[in-house]
Amino acid sequence: MTHCREVTRRHSQTFYLGSRFFPARQRAAVWAVYAACRAGDDIVDEGEGTGAERELAEWWERVQAAFAGEPGPHPMDTALAWAAAHWPVPLSAFEELHEGLRMDLRGHAYRTRDDLDLYCRRVAGVVGFMIAPICGYSGGERTLHHALRLGQAMQLTNILRDVGEDLERGRVYLPHALLGEYGVTRAMLEGGRVTPEYRALMRHLSDLAREWYAEGRQGIPCLHGSARLAVQAAARSYEGILDDLARGDFDNFRRRAHVSGTRKLLMLPQAWWELRGAVARA
Question: What is an example of a GO molecular function annotated in this UniProt entry (predicted)?
Fold first, then answer.
């Protein structure tokens, strides 16, 4: 599990911080799932053309083989096979993730909010379906819906943080309809112009992400044991990126909104207190 732990620590300090609150076996399973998802994401971000399409198809075959109990020799494959054998992680969630990653490779055009919602579901929302069975939970489909929303909120946060970086890859996730509604053009984006119209659009989407965070957090009291604090800490830290984006006046072209390690640690008492109150009300 060393490989999966290092992938998680290196690529997402926020997710890694939250994972530290899981018991050891669950923590290892969470790292395995994260590393598998990250491997697919890296193919899309770092590759291009038919080569990337081939690599992504191979990644999907490796995931299916791991779920079938026939993993390849790579540490990610064996770790995912172990996690899938011990917890009811749904292969269908990885299938949706695969479809979301293919949207990136195809250069999918995001015309409406529905397109954006679907993308956020596929590449991050379904991660909630993967993690919830490892946590253990009550509440059935309602809890899974909240987990989905939490993942979508985190992905929308990524999109708002990375507008400038995504443009360098030729990707725009901001829906065309919303751009038109707020008077923001592709040329304005490519020029890195943080206009009043652009700030209004960023506030609108930040408010949407916060609505999703609020809805997603309703399911956290339904998780079992220390998994509650693990997910609460990760969610609170990730939402902090939106705070930093606003502090930077929504300039996501020249600066990358983030939450420092110290600030994340300072958030933990608040996360614990909020969770304590939510569990008492549940």
Answer: geranylgeranyl diphosphate synthase activity
